[in-house]
Amino acid sequence: MIRNIAFDFGGVIVDLDREEAVQAFIRLGLENAGRILDKYHQTGIFQELEEGKLSEESFREKLGILCGKPLEREEVRQAWMGFVSGMDIRKLDYIAQLRQRGYRTFLLSNTNPYLMDYWARTPQFTPQGNSIDAYFDKLYLSFEMGCMKPEPEIFRQMIKDAQIRPEETLFIDDSTSNIAAGKNAGLQTFQPENASDWRTQVETLLERAK
Predict the structure, then answer these.
(1) Which of 50, 84, 183, 195 has the least CB density, counted as fewest CB within 10 Å?
(2) pTM of the predicted model over 0.90
């Protein structure tokens, strides 16, 4: 039986557009953005930010050096928002219904303060004025945890902190490497495509697991 569901953020809750993010950072002055940015796992200072090795301020300072000019927090946030091409509010409504039905829901995401602290965890996240915290029992965020998917440590931390049984937990992520890591951690897994409406498929998995 599945009692817990851990969701990825980008590609599952929100739709991803890497190319728009690349163009947004190029407009800031980061000429090699196409080489640095990835949908699933960043490199360089972008990885250091998402691993929690760089603070938001330190990242902005180092990014400004690479871009050749000082940068304001808002313009960096807007560049990160280039990754987000849309969000189907029906997915969040479905997650809220799952919680009402007794499932524990978690977010397990490789992410950073620009997307979380300055957007998703604010009332601007949804038209109803709800932050992402309203839909989950707890958020497990790479920059707060000091590790990233697909590292085994991030799964171990979530399982231990949430006090969940891996075999009773469904992990939903659009990355093949993250799904493989979830399976290795003993989780049940489901890999939807980026921007797809996965609600019916998840419901089928939950029914089969009863």
Answers:
(1) 183
(2) yes
